[in-house]
Amino acid sequence: MARILVVDDEIGIRELLSEILYDEGHTVELAENAAQARAARQRSRPDLVLLDIWMPDTDGVSLLKEWNSQGLLNMPVVMMSGHATVDTAVEATRIGAVDFLEKPITLQKLLKTISTALARPVVSSTASGSVSIPDARGAGVSQPLTTTPVNGSPPAPVPEVDNSKLGSIPLDQPLREARDEFERIYFEYHLGRENHSMTRVSEKTGLERTHLYRKLKQLGIDSSRKRNTNQ
After folding, report:
1. pTM (2 decimals)?
2. Which of 3, 28, 55, 208 is the most exposed, having the fewest neighbouring CB atoms within 10 Å of its CB?
């Protein structure tokens, strides 16, 4: 997974993106302004930066220009904004941004953009300080990430539906209670299948994340990711 730096002055946006990206297995660092972004960039080079355009101290386009001129734009940068014009997006792309996300950012668009950006070859700075970013349609561009491990080992087994559980639901009970039992089996199956990734369970079940969390809590299902305590 990747190290992703999220730069946005809105705490709600930072927390939402952090939750989604962590749920996908990424390491996330947050910055609320350009000064914090510079410090985070200096500490350790992120694999990807999500950079808001409108910020109080230095706007995202200016920070992008700064990194470009200093030869520091050697990671993909995706710009974000809810108010930017087409001209601003084009300018950011010309400077070196690999893509642009318009707020409010949909989950599907966010994950697709990140996957595409991370699949690009490593961006390298030229001697003049400008940045060379291969065209996404050009030769040599990496394919989108897959769930198959690099070492060729088989992917994690997909849990099977325990049909005996489905058959054990009494049909002579009230509909609400029978439905709750079915939903427990249904959501436990998807949680196991997606390794407790709430992002993917949300996609598979068609429920918005907030609604999904409420539903699992209502059914008494533990939605937390099982972590390896030996690490």
Report:
1. 0.58
2. 208
